[in-house]
Amino acid sequence: MIKIITDSICDLKADLIEKYGIEILPLRVRLGGEQEYLDRVEVDPPRIWDAMHRGIAPQTTQVPPSVTASVFERCAAAGMDFIYVAFSAVLSGCCHVATLVSNELKEKYPKVKMGIINSKAGSFGQGSMVLQLAHAAAKGVSFEELMNRGAHMAEHVEIFIGLGDMKWLVLGGRVNKLLGKTGSMLDIRPIVHIDRQGYLKVVSAVRGQKRMIQSVCDKSLELLREFPEQLIGLSYSEEYSSIEQAMEYMKDRLLNPRYYIQPIGCALTAHCGLEGVGVQFFNTKIEPYYYD
């Protein structure tokens, strides 16, 4: 069977990772010091939330090249074809490093098929792609077909995230300090979207938590029309009540929706902050589509 590999920003639950034998490459997180913690292994979202409440701005680094090389070579040495679904290539160097590593290994293991897919996403937008590919791989779908499906999904994945505060965009250098301070004073909540190239961009801003949640839902509902029956990712940063409000708002606008609910992972929380809520989905029908 073809091995599916991804990085820890995918926001997949442990039971699904184990079920499909998905390999996770952990990003690194710093919490106000020099020590780095392995994402999903040594640090989890609640610990990130606690640090941020104490005024610590977490920092993240990509998967070390040595780790990527070690996992890829282990698969190749065992004669196992593999596909790595990477975090958006314009937001992280994971995809670039993986491409360089696989190109080197192809010379040493010419019979092993190695594929790199730029998800142009993160969180469950990336995770949903990984699940579809892992399920298909378990069914015996060919390497070439898996690569084609992955490329197609990367062009149709959507992620909208409402942010609870502009403070963390300021710390991340995405908006200037004056604008951030003014926005925080006025309770301005930015809405960010990962675009077709994989960039995280502020697309609008509203006042208050309730309007933020409604805005994220409205933008998502507009693009969900083509494929409303899919598994819709709902992610939150600390405030689970945001998810409850989102489901309440969408229940009369979607027929029997199916949700995948999970905290926004450590790496994205470090940039997006607290009280966030995200919706992830495909904007077109994916065929075949597997439900878990």
Structural account:
The chain is of the alpha/beta class. It is 40% helix and 23% strand. It is built from 11 helices and 13 strands. The protein has helices at residues 14-20, 45-53, 65-77, 94-108, 123-138, 143-154, 167-171, 177-185, 209-223, 241-250, 266-272; strands at residues 3-7, 23-25, 28-30, 36-38, 59-61, 82-86, 114-118, 157-162, 188-194, 200-207, 231-236, 258-263, 277-282. The strands form 3 sheets. The chain has a 6-stranded mixed beta sheet, sandwiched between helices. Helix 3 packs parallel to helix 4 (94-108), helix 5 (123-138) runs antiparallel to helix 6 and helix 9 crosses helix 10 (241-250). The chain is globular.
Which helices and strands appear, and what pairs or packs with what?
Layout: E1 3-7, H1 14-20, E2 23-25, E3 28-30, E4 36-38, H2 45-53, E5 59-61, H3 65-77, E6 82-86, H4 94-108, E7 114-118, H5 123-138, H6 143-154, E8 157-162, H7 167-171, H8 177-185, E9 188-194, E10 200-207, H9 209-223, E11 231-236, H10 241-250, E12 258-263, H11 266-272, E13 277-282
Helix pairs in contact: 3-4, 5-6, 9-10
Protein traits:
6-stranded mixed sheet, alpha/beta, 292 residues, 13 strands, 4-stranded parallel sheet
In a few lines, what is going on in this structure?
The protein has 292 residues and is an alpha/beta fold.
